[in-house]
């Protein structure tokens, strides 16, 4: 029995160890199955114990029965054993209850095992996450360092600028420090996680120790039970032995768990160490970058200092700039004033020189005009018309000298006569060419001269064409106004000019204002009441003109007024004198000098002989008036050329009106118009003889005294008005004018014969 009890004790001890091991291994992941197996085996052991219990009383009773003697030492032993057995039974029941309690306690412990398993799982994940994070943490600084390197390379390539360098130097250390701080923060977090894991591990160890303590208590209890257990309970001992086996297995599993935990701990430490190593190497790289940045910064500092110096000097310059600018402006102003004063003095000198030159030029011009004669004679031959070409007696009467533009040849009655004038314009001469020769006279009216330009010739010889021209090819009138405008504009800075225009028609010795509202208004010529002896025409319209539009308006109005007074304008224009009077008043703004010149542009009436035209009645009257005025004009020109003290201006309305423009320093141009038609030969001959005579008289005016004297002895023109107070007998120019009576015819013939 004793050996059975000992055996039972050994089994119980083993069982206790096994239970203790199992208890200590609670919480391990893969021990659940072992625990189940142990529970199953435990059940089997219980079954064996039950069967053993069933057998044991019976054996004991049998033994008691076989040994019924009270004196038998065996019976006493048996009694004792029976008591011990009962005690053991009770203890065994207690142990069963303890085991049942343990079994009941097992499901309660299972959630704890589960939670420990989940914690272990989470720890493993955290370690994995930590490893991943370590990889990211390792990758981020690398990226940042690359960015830093790229940024540094870019800064190196960029031109050194103060602002840019400053910004770059400031930016990189900040970023590196920030990355370092982030890494350090993450390291701290990892440290915290590791410390948490360690804390968890410590808790698990504490729980393990508690479980071991519980197991030890249980073992003590079992040992106590074993001490009182009967040796006969072999099954129970076997069960205890199995329990001890299980406890050993549990212990082994615990050992494995500890090894695994240690491995995990080592792995964790290793991972942490590697992470630290990587972080340190990254930190080192960052520090190296930082050092490189610092070196760059150090190398850039001199440039920065230079730039700062430059900037400061520039700043100083900018600060001083207003003062310097003011100073420079003042100096510039001073210099400019000096230059202006120098220029103005030079200008004054030049102005004086210019004035001297102008006066000289004027004098020269006047001298030239004087040498040429104040009265100049031009001749213009109009082109032959188609009718004239087609005529039966078409011949070429007029010819020109290609080398001398002042010579004209006329073939008449088999003789070739030569006429020398100031200028001869052939038929192909343009309006521009003609005007070019007269423009000096036109501009002299700006200088204050009075100028008269007459177009003289028989009807149809081209007087109106030369003076008025055509719409698209204007004559002297319009061109003269254009020239005056341009000349006045040129002188505008110094001179202020006003140009006024009047248009007058003289028909049958009647003066008509062509620019008035009523075209039939007749004008009179009167002496100025101021005693100056100058003439004026009251109510004569003076139209101020400033532009070409004004000129057009004036000409349009004059043409309209002229047309309304007659039935046939062409015929009427042939029988009347048309005067365009241009007055140019100038005021010198600086000197205050004043000038007043007058340009008279006269389209005379036709000069054909009445004897040829055979006019009667109204025509005769018109012809007489025309002849009278033309003869008067001839007388006046003759008197002027011969420097006669008395000039018979009052002999006609024409000469009376032009008195102030024909006397004194005034300049006169006679444009003799000639028709090339053979049918007009005699008229052309008369006109040319007249022109020749006028010119020869003018050129010989230097020796005119003697001739004047001679001329004075010749009879005056029959048309000369001897009744005029101021018209002493003068030698008239033998104008080829018509005569209204037979006596006139005779005189006319004698006049022509003189040529
Ligand atoms: N140089 C010229 N070139 C071209 N045509 C001309 C020229 N001269 C005159 N004519 C033409 O000859 C014709 C007569 O000219 P215009 O009327 O000017 O003569 P006139 O002497 O004024 O006559 P009137 O005394 O009757 O007024 C016109 O048709 C004109 O166009």
Describe the overall structure:
- With 755 residues, the chain is an alpha/beta fold.
- It folds into two domains: 297 residues, no CATH class; 284 residues, Kinesin motor domain (Kinesin, 3-Layer(aba) Sandwich), CATH 3.40.850.10.
- It is 65% helix and 12% strand.
- The chain is built from 18 helices and 15 strands.
- Strands 1, 5, 6, 7, 8, 9, 12, 13, 14 and 15 form a ten-stranded mixed beta sheet that branches.
- Strand 8 and strand 9 form a beta hairpin.
- Helix 1 runs parallel beside helix 5 and helix 3 runs antiparallel to helix 4.
- It is rod-shaped, with a radius of gyration of 75 Å.
- The N and C termini lie far apart (204 Å).
- The C terminus is likely disordered.
- Bound molecules: adenosine-5'-triphosphate.
- Adenosine-5'-triphosphate (ATP) binds next to helix 8 and helix 11.
Question: In short, what is this structure?
Answer:
Residues 374-697 form the Kinesin motor domain. This protein has 755 residues and is an alpha/beta fold.
Biggest pleated sheet: 10 strands, mixed
Low-confidence stretches: 55-74, 160-172, 699-755
Q: What is the straight-line distance between the termini?
A: 204 Å
User: What is the overall shape?
Assistant: rod-shaped
Oligomeric state, counting identical vs distinct chains: single chain
Question: How many strand segments?
Answer: 15
**Helix share bin:** 55-70%
Mean pLDDT: 74
Number of individual domains:
2
Bound molecule types: adenosine-5'-triphosphate
Strand % is 5-15%
Radius of gyration: 75 Å
- Output the number of helix runs: 18
Would you tell me the structural class of the helices and strands?
alpha/beta
Keywords: ATP-binding, Cell junction, Coiled coil, Cytoplasm, Cytoplasmic vesicle, Cytoskeleton, Membrane, Microtubule, Motor protein, Nucleotide-binding, Phosphoprotein
Subcellular location: Cell junction, Adherens junction; Cytoplasm, Cytoskeleton, Microtubule organizing center, Centrosome; Cytoplasmic vesicle membrane
Pfam families: Kinesin
Function: Minus-end microtubule-dependent motor protein. Involved in apically targeted transport. Required for zonula adherens maintenance.
């Amino acid at each position: 029995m004793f050996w059975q009890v000992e055996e039972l004790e050994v089994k119980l001890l083993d069982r206790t160890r096994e239970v203790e091991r199992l208890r200590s291994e609670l919480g391990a992941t893969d021990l659940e199955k072992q625990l189940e197996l142990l529970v199953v085996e435990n059940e089997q052991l219980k079954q064996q114990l039950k069967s053993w219990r069933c057998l044991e009383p019976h054996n004991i009773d049998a033994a008691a029965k076989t040994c019924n003697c009270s004196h038998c030492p065996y019976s006493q032993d048996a009694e004792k054993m029976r008591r011990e057995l009962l005690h053991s039974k009770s203890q065994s029941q207690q142990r069963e209850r303890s085991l049942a309690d343990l079994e009941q306690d097992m499901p309660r412990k299972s959630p704890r095992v589960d939670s420990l398993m989940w914690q272990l799982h989470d720890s493993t994940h955290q370690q994995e996450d930590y490893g991943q994070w370590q990889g990211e943490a390792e990758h981020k600084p690398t990226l940042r360092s690359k960015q830093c390197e790229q940024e540094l390379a870019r800064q190196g390539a960029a031109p050194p600028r103060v602002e840019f360098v400053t910004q770059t130097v400031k930016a990189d250390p900040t970023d590196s420090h920030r990355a370092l701080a982030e890494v350090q923060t993450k390291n701290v977090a990892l440290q915290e996680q590791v410390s948490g894991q360690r804390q968890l591990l410590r808790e698990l160890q504490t729980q393990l120790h508690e479980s071991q303590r519980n197991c030890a208590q249980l073992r003590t209890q079992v040992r106590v039970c074993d001490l009182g257990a009967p040796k006969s309970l072999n099954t129970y001992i076997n069960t205890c032995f199995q329990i001890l086996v299980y406890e050993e297995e549990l212990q082994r599993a615990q050992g494995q768990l500890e090894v695994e935990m240690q491995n995990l701990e080592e792995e964790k430490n290793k991972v942490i160490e590697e992470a630290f190593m990587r972080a340190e190497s990254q930190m080192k790289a960052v520090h190296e970058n930082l050092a490189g940045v610092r070196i760059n910064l150090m190398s850039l500092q001199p440039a920065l200092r230079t730039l700062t110096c430059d900037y400061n000097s520039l700043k100083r310059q900018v600060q001083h700039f207003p003062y310097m600018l003011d100073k420079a402006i003042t100096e510039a102003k001073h210099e400019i004033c000096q230059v202006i004063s120098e220029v103005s003095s030079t200008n004054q000198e030049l102005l004086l020189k210019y004035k001297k030159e102008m006066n000289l030029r004027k004098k020269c011009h006047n001298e030239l005009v004087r040498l040429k004669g104040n009265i100049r004679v031009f001749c213009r031959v109009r082109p032959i018309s188609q009718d004239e070409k087609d005529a039966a007696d078409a011949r070429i009467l007029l010819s020109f000298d290609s080398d001398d533009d002042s010579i004209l040849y006329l073939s008449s009655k088999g003789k070739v006569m030569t006429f020398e004038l100031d200028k001869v314009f052939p038929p192909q001469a343009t309006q521009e060419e003609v005007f070019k020769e007269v423009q000096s006279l036109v501009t002299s009216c700006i200088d204050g001269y009075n100028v008269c330009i007459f177009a003289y010739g028989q009807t149809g010889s081209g007087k109106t064409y030369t003076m008025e021209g055509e719409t698209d090819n204007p004559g002297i009138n319009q061109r003269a106004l254009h020239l005056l405008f341009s000349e006045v504009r040129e002188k505008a800075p110094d001179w202020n000019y006003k140009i006024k225009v009047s248009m007058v028609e003289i028909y049958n010795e009647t003066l008509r204002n062509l620019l008035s509202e009523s075209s039939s208004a007749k004008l009179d010529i009167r002496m100025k009441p101021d005693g100056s002896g100058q003439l004026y025409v009251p109510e004569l319209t003076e139209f101020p003109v400033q532009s070409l539009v004004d000129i057009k308006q004036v000409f349009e109005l004059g043409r309209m007024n002229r047309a309304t007074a007659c039935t046939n304008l062409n015929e009427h224009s042939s029988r009347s004198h048309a005067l365009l009077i241009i007055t140019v008043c100038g005021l010198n703004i600086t000197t205050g000098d004043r000038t007043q010149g007058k340009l008279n542009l006269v389209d005379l009436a036709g000069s054909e002989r009445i004897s040829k035209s055979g006019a009667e009645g109204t025509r005769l009257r018109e012809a007489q008036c025309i002849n009278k005025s033309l003869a008067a004009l001839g007388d006046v020109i003759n008197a002027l050329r011969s420097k006669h003290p008395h000039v018979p201006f009052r002999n006609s309305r024409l000469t009376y009106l032009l008195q102030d423009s024909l006397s004194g320093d005034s300049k006169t141009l006679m444009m003799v118009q000639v028709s090339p038609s053979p049918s007009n030969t005699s008229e052309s001959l008369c006109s040319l003889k007249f022109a020749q005579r006028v010119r020869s008289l003018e050129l010989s005016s230097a020796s005119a005294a003697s001739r004047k004297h001679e001329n004075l002895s010749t009879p005056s023109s029959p048309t000369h008005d001897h009744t005029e107070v101021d018209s002493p007998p003068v030698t008239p120019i033998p104008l080829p004018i018509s005569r209204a009576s037979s006596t006139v015819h005779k005189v006319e013939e004698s006049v022509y014969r003189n040529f």
